Amino acid sequence: MKDLKLIGPFSQLLTMNGLLEKGPLDDSALEIIENGGVLIRNGIIQKVGKYDSLKNDIKLPKANLIHIDEKTVGLPGFIDPHTHICFAGSRANDYAKRISGKTYLEIAREGGGIWQTVQQTRQADPDQLYANTLNRAEKMLELGITTAEVKSGYGLNMEDELKMLKTIDRVHKNAQIDLVSTCLAAHMVPKDFNGNSRQYLDFILTELLPQVIQNGLSRRVDIFIEKEAFGEVDALYFLQKSKVLGFDLTIHGDQFTPMGSQVAIETGALSVDHLESSTDKEILALAKSDVISTVLPGASLGLGMPFAPARKLLNAGNALAIGSDWNPGSAPMGNLLLQASLLSTSEKLTNAETFAGITFRAAKALNFHDRGKLATGMLADIIAFPCTDYREILYHQGQLRPSIIVKKGNKID
Length: 413
Prior knowledge:
alpha/beta; Urease, subunit C, domain 1; 8-stranded mixed sheet; 16 helices; 16 strands; 21% strand
């Protein structure tokens, strides 16, 4: 009894239980508990139900009650399955060029783009990089994100890729948000590398990844498949060998051209992310696989290009996750809820589909099975918004912020 906590009452609890892992979702399928409560032990949910019933059934000392005086809607903590928040510097100059008419690829060829951030991140000392990353992680938590993936990929050499991954690990250990690291050394071939793309990938496989494993810095790898980055043949080679080393796989695919989806399917990747250029062929192929389709509306907003075909992906039977892609170049905003709200109105996604994309379906893209729902055995990651109807949350398109955040059973002040 001593280690039990009860939090509530919530005007509504949106549990996300009982929803399909793939395909369309109707709001009528949402489990909504009026005047709900959550019973927690050691950071794990023991039971979800009516607050008064839980309180009466289990007589707890007052100190074990986290009483909510305001009217709120509670739901699982949001999960952002794709970010690049570990970086130094700014790319405001890139943005100015884009809104003046230049394309992302044109700017990259002129020396901007990823390579500019690589140079700035290499120059940053570890403490500066840590402070930058911690600040962004804390902002994400304030927005209701309790778990986020963070990629390397702005080091592109042994020293600085390890510096980035160690920074992500340091922030994870010191922040209240959970961070999941991904090694994206295969972001592009660095301009100062003396060799071709296959040789650079071999450097990652034979020199960098063994150090990542030895230091326990990541269990995931990513690769950017695009004409200006890595081709599908090289990517297939890299991912297959990474899988043998024991890494989970994810892919930047179908962003500017329909490249990457098929590689994700062939390699059994957890997810393929972006998909702005996916055609019916890629959409149908993904639907027949177990690959999560992760869309990144922040990149579309930052680049001024159409959103990924989220409605078509769902209708075909895909599992749709939604990430912010927070990065200094194409997606500098970083507000996941705002982006998901705008995606939902453009692509006609239901509340259920949108919330699924930033809770349990996003968890699946990160190979997590212990979060994203309010259910027995799940992490007690709970957020609550100051309203009485869950529909208000997307209606305000990111303006409504969580008033309560609980991470692993602890209320964050």
